[in-house]
Amino acid sequence: xxxxxxxxxxxxxxxxxxxxxxxxxxxxxxxxxxxxxxxxxxxxxxxxxxxxxxxxxxxxxxxxxxxxxxxxxxxxxxxxxxxxxxxxxxxxxxxxxxxxxxxxxxxxxxxxxxxxxxxxxxxxxxxxxxxxxxxxxxxxxxxxxxxxxxxxxx
Length: 154
Known about the structure:
Largest sheet: none
Number of strands: 0
Number of helices: 8
Shape: elongated
Order of helices and strands: HHHHHHHH
Distance between the termini: 50 Å
Structural class: mainly alpha
């Protein structure tokens, strides 16, 4: 019979292996946010089932892989909209979204205003701020635009 500590050691080894694979998935989303990505493809790359990846990712990072991807896309979209040289539609496709409606809905959920309003207000919102500060101040936060949701502390 095996010693009980061996089972705990194997479980810890599996947990650490999962965390390493989850970091690689998160890094891939950060790198390839503008490409077509889906949970099944991300899971295959991490040698996990889609369900297992989704559960473990949410446990580790507080949101599903799809929600994390959309947050990255909206974060990049805010930077492009602040620049002001692209239309909302061009920004939508530049960040990897294939539906303007879905993009606008997710953008509004995370930022609190539709992309067209954000673009109009962007010059006054970030005027005089260094880009690194503007990025932090205007970073999308899931739940901010939803009625009744409390904003996350910074």
